[in-house]
Design a protein that fits this description.
By secondary structure, the chain is α+β, with helices and mostly antiparallel strands. The protein is 66% helix and 11% strand. The model is unreliable at 289-297 (pLDDT under 50).
């Protein structure tokens, strides 16, 4: 699926989710339901993450510059980190309000809560199907976060509906505070994953699912390579990986190792999805304090 088509589909998903976000926020105020407002906060996280993915796809189309040689891909990760921090702040506010409501329960218009939460549930299910059907949830970190946000919000909507039914039948309005606290836990759980992944990328950690040992093993299996060292693997953004390494080969002319370089790049791309690689060829082992680069690429 091309970037333009994906952005169009994302725009539709953002529009649907935003409409329900507004409906839940207004409904939560009118119905005096903290649980519904909390669910609106959770949906805000969904909208934010979907917008980040749209933004990431948009800026990915921009060419690199002399000052930003990798382009603006890393903006996706900064945005994801900000999203995670914002979710934690929102969860903290919800917990605070939930404690207040638990100590002093307020009357809630359960019927309004049920209607609004049902609309939210239907929309969440539609967006979930939409993202899953087109595989959009696996494209990048923000999309993955958005998918699980929507999944969590779907469960939250079910909980809000059940809670509203219980309040309507029993008048036990403390349920609203309990549901709010549970939704806050969902927010923190989603934020934890997003923050952990974004910080890992910002610290240039090895991409998840890739083993340095396995990459070294595959590279040294190439007949022309005697040894691999100074191996570094990192992420530019959630789905673009880079590598740099020194490769010890037999002494030969530069044009003779070009085929080896092509073999390395093909292996890295097909087996590990590493599309940016810099390989320094050496003809004799490095010794401490000595830099050898008889043949560089």
């Amino acid at each position: 699926m091309d970037s333009h088509s994906t952005r169009k589909r994302l725009t539709l998903a953002i529009g649907l989710t935003f409409v329900v976000l507004v409906a839940e926020a207004v409904g939560g105020i009118l119905a005096n339901s903290l649980a519904l407002l909390s669910d609106a906060g959770h949906m805000f996280g969904d909208v934010f993450a979907l917008c980040l993915s749209w933004f990431a796809l948009k800026i990915a189309c921009r060419p690199s510059t002399h000052t930003k040689t990798y382009g603006l891909h890393r903006m996706e990760i900064f945005a994801a980190f900000f999203n995670g921090v914002l979710l934690v702040v929102m969860a903290g506010w919800i917990f605070y309000e939930a404690i207040e409501r638990f100590q002093n329960p307020s009357v809630v218009d359960s019927q309004t809560v049920i209607i609004i939460a049902a609309i939210g549930l239907i929309t969440n299910l539609a967006v979930l199907f939409f993202l899953k059907e087109h595989g959009l949830h696996s494209h990048d970190l923000n999309m993955k976060g958005a998918f699980f946000h929507v999944l969590g919000d779907t469960l939250a909507s079910v909980g809000v509906i059940i809670g509203a039914v219980v309040m309507m039948a029993t008048g036990w309005y403390v349920v609203d505070a309990i549901l709010s606290a549970l939704i806050a836990v969902l927010l923190i759980w989603g934020a934890r994953s997003i923050l952990a992944d974004s910080v890992h990328i910002l610290l240039e950690g090895v991409p998840k699912g890739i083993s340095v040992v396995e990459v070294e093993k595959e590279l040294t299996a190439i007949p022309a390579i005697r040894e691999i060292h100074e191996l570094h693997i990192w992420s530019i953004c959630s789905n673009i990986y880079a590598l740099s390494a020194h490769a010890l080969v037999n002494d030969q002319k530069v044009n003779q190792v070009e085929s080896v370089l092509g073999e390395i790049q093909e292996l890295l791309k097909t087996k590990f999805n590493i599309t940016h690689s810099t390989v320094q060829f050496e003809s004799r082992p490095c010794r401490d304090g000595e830099v050898l680069c008889e043949m560089n690429h």
